[in-house]
Design goal:
The complex is a heterodimer. Chain A contains five helices and five strands. Chain A is α/β, with parallel strands linked by helices. Chain A has one domain: STAS domain (Transcription Regulator spoIIAA, 2-Layer Sandwich). In chain A, helix 1 links the parallel strand 2 and strand 3. In chain A, helix 1 runs parallel beside helix 2. The radius of gyration of chain A is 12 Å and the shape is globular. In chain B, helix 3 packs parallel to helix 7. In chain B, 54% of the residues lie in helices and 15% in strands. Classes of the chains: A alpha/beta, B alpha+beta. At the A-B interface, helix 2 and helix 4 of A face loops of B.
Chain lengths: 110, 695
């Protein structure tokens, strides 16, 4: 099960992920990120505090937008990941491409 | 070889009855000869009676055999047989009378021998008519028989048998016992005559014909009976054959049954069209419920549906609209209407249903009855067709009369359409099942092909043992492992995992294998291998897919391992001398994530020495992320401790331990919903080194 929640703080669009991202619901995540991007948002933050698990299909979603973010100069950051999920990002090496912060304030500060 | 000729009952009984009749005739002629010549012939009446009874019996057996043989279910044929025999017997009697009439008062007219001969002929023909008709009636009475009717018939037959022998007791006098017997037989006949179940099954045309035949039978019966009465009053005939209870009772029976049949058929005439209609409906219903065979098409069912509904509602025209596209409707069947009229009617119905009050969607799936202001057709009935709760089309019936569709018609028509929809639905489901079956077969082939992509023999020197295992969550998966021998001293281990699972992962896996196989020939360093692999895979992977891989180049001479990791799950390395183990985690980005030159900055190489007893466990994330019922992951810790516990075992044993523990963790029937693979390598004491140590 995955629940997505969009909030806006200042110029930051915060997308909170609740539950698990796997092959069956990665499309939802993809759609929401696409929406945010198309709405012209320049700062997209992912709140992973409630994210219990992310499969390779879920990671594939983030990965597929890396080039777009760079092209459109969008700040894409992830924060508040649980150690387990954080490790998944680390193993794949995505932590080298996406800034991962431990708290929201850090993420705001960049 | 001598063979007994098979006894032909029909011919035998026919021959016997003719012989018996001739004997009867001869006996009577002899008797008359005796009387005329005042000689005592010494032939008692009993002999005549016995012969008469014999004649009855042989005729009975002949006819029951003959009717049994031509056991047609055609009632009309049976009645015609009785009628034709009756007409024949009556005609013969009339001819005899005419013959005597033409003779006038000549001497020949009072010639006793000839008179007696014709008497016997008339007797024989009448008896044939009576017995054959009685047996034909039996067939009609016992149509759709039940136990009670069979019993009644048996009683009647028994009573007739008694009546045959009654002559010995009664000496052919019309006394009270005769009348009593006759009354009993007539009562039984009347009761039996109530069994007329065959009549409703006649069509109107057949009913008219049967009325005619029954009329013939009634007339002949009456005529022949009158002849009989005439004979019994005449004194010329020495032994009266005809004042016989058996024959008189048969007369009564034949007449009664024919009369009942005649009247019931007559009164059945007006309702017979309704009966026929119901019968057709039942047959149509049956045709509709027969499921369509896969090779047939739905059109036949719709064809039957149209025919049945039109005949059930006496509609003057009809058409069928099927939804083919999203909004498009196609007219597939048009009956007794031209396209122009159909369009006119369609327009009017559309206007009516748009203005109608019942706009709610629940009514849409119920039959709707309309009044039309069309010059020719004044009423219309719309029956929606639905399969699987979704409308597939509608059938429109039109009639030239106003309010032409009554409740019963609507009922039967909607039953028909429901049945047809079920048949269509079954047909579709069946086709789908067949298609699925084919896909399953295709997937099995894919599975076999993919299994062949994994090595069935792993390259390794004597100085290390190796084993590997892979299991896909679906028929095919995205995990891959392989080994290569670069030269005498260097061996390569590779493990890879495509993101996602199933068919798409399987295709990427085969691409990965191709790329790895070509790159390995180039003698590259692990980091260079990954960089090249990334650039090659970037061109063929789908946008949101990536591959993780680990590569190990083992130099057995220098006991050195060079390793690069591209986002893959870290490999467990057990260090025998230190008796500890660690997961080899360092920077390394998955393949296909960064699809440009920058990837070079994100891959590292690690080099380390190994010694005998050391173990490498290469895994894919399916093992680490396997979940139990509580949602906990198998995790790295369990793998690590299991390897440490079983460190002294062979790679195969360690691998089995890991797999067994994994299954036990996930739970009895729990499914691991990702592909998972592993490769276990254990380094053995080097033969050369051991020798050195020994000396």
């Amino acid at each position: 099960m995955l629940r997505l929640e969009k909030t806006k703080e200042n110029s930051f669009d915060i997308l909170s992920l609740h539950g698990e991202v796997d092959a069956s619901n990665s499309v939802q995540l993809d759609e929401v990120i696409k929406e945010l991007m198309e709405s012209g948002s320049k700062n997209i933050l992912i709140d992973g505090g409630e994210l219990e698990y992310i499969s390779s299909a879920g990671l594939g979603v983030f990965m597929s937008y890396l080039e777009d973010f760079q092209e459109k100069e969008i700040n894409f950051r992830i924060f508040n990941l649980s150690p387990k999920v954080s490790e998944v990002f680390k193993i794949l090496g995505l932590d080298q491409l996406i800034p991962i912060h431990s708290t929201k304030t850090e993420a705001f500060a960049g | 070889m001598f063979r007994l000729p098979t006894i032909h009952i029909g011919k035998l009984t026919l021959l016997l009855s003719i012989l018996v009749w001739l004997a009867l005739l001869f006996v009577d002629l002899v008797r008359i000869f005796g009387i005329i010549n005042s000689l005592e012939s010494g032939i008692s009446n009993e002999i005549t009676w016995i012969l008469e009874i014999l004649f009855f019996f042989t005729l009975y057996f002949f006819y029951s055999d003959s009717i049994e043989k031509n056991k047609q279910k055609d009632f009309l044929n049976l009645i015609w047989r009785a009628a034709s025999t009756g007409i024949f017997a009556s005609t013969a009697a009339i001819l005899v009378e005419l013959f005597y009439f033409s003779l006038g008062d000549s001497k020949l007219a009072s010639e006793p021998f000839m008179k007696n001969f014709f008497y016997h002929v008339n007797f024989a023909l009448t008896t044939i008519f009576l017995i054959s008709s009685a047996l034909l009636w039996k067939h009609l009475i016992l149509y759709q028989k039940n136990k009670q009717v069979v019993k009644q018939w048996q009683v009647f037959e028994f009573a007739l048998l008694v009546a045959m022998f009654f002559v010995f007791f009664n000496k052919n006098n019309l006394d009270y016992s005769f009348i009593f017997g006759l009354v009993i037989l007539i009562i039984i006949s009347a009761i039996l005559s109530g069994n007329l179940k065959w009549i409703p099954y006649l069509t109107i045309k057949e009913k008219w014909k049967s009325l005619l035949f029954l009329f013939f039978i009634l007339v002949s019966t009456g005529f022949l009976f009158r002849r009989f009465l005439a004979y019994s009053n005449a004194e010329v005939y020495q032994v009266n054959l005809t004042d016989n209870l058996f024959l008189v009772a048969l007369f009564a029976f034949i007449f009664l049954y024919a009369l009942f049949s005649f009247l019931v058929t007559l009164f059945n005439l007006p309702t017979s069209s309704v009966f026929e209609q119901k019968l057709t409906e039942a047959i149509n219903f049956q045709r509709l419920s027969q499921s369509i065979k896969p090779e047939e098409n739905e059109e036949q069912v719709l064809d039957i549906l149209m025919d049945s509904c039109m005949s059930a509602s006496y509609a003057d025209g009809a058409w069928l609209e099927l939804q083919t596209g999203k909004k498009r409707e196609e007219i597939v069947q048009l009956r007794f209407l031209d396209h122009k009229t159909q369009e006119e009617l369609s327009e009017r119905i559309k206007a009516l249903s748009a203005s109608g009050k019942n706009q709610d969607s629940s009514k849409e799936l119920e039959p709707q009855n309309f009044r039309l202001d069309h010059p020719k057709f004044e009423s219309a009935l719309i029956i929606p067709l639905e399969v699987n709760n979704s409308k597939i089309g509608k059938m429109i019936l039109v009639k030239e009369v106003r309010d032409g569709f009554n409740k019963e018609m609507i009922g039967i028509v909607s039953t028909f359409s429901r049945q047809a929809c079920i048949a269509v639905e079954n047909h579709r489901l069946l086709n789908q099942a067949i298609l699925n079956e084919r896909y399953q077969e295709e997937l099995k082939i894919a599975q076999r092909v993919q299994k062949a992509l994994l090595p069935n023999k792993l390259d390794h020197p004597d100085s290390f043992q190796i084993c590997a295992y892979s299991n896909a969550a679906d028929e095919v998966g995205g995990d891959y492992y392989d080994t290569f021998k670069l030269d005498e001293d260097r061996y390569v281990l590779i493990i890879g995992d495509v993101s996602g699972k199933g068919t798409s992962a399987a295709f990427h896996m085969s691409q990965m294998k191709g790329i790895f196989h070509s790159l390995i020939q180039l003698n590259l360093s692990p980091a260079e291998f990954m960089i090249r692999a990334n650039s090659a895979l970037s061109k063929c992977l789908e946008k949101n897919h990536f591959i993780t891989a680990s590569i190990f180049i083992i130099n057995i001479r220098e006991q050195k391992i060079c390793h690069a990791r591209a986002g893959h799950v870290p490999t467990l390395f057990y260090h025998a001398q230190a008796n500890n183990s660690e997961f080899l985690l360092f920077d390394g980005l998955g393949l296909g994530i960064l699809r440009n030159r920058k990837y070079e900055n994100h891959v590292q190489e690690k080099e380390f020495h190994y010694s005998s007893g050391d173990i490498l466990v290469l895994i894919t994330d399916g093992i680490v992320e396997a979940k139990n019922q509580k949602g906990q992951q198998f995790g790295f810790g369990r793998i690590q401790s299991l390897v440490e516990i079983h460190k002294d075992k062979t790679p195969k044993e360690i691998q089995n331990q890991l797999i067994d523990s994994l299954h036990a963790f996930v739970g009895g029937d729990g499914m691991i919903d990702d592909d998972y693979s592993m490769m276990v390598v254990k380094f053995l004491p080097d033969a050369h080194q051991d020798k050195k140590n020994l000396y």
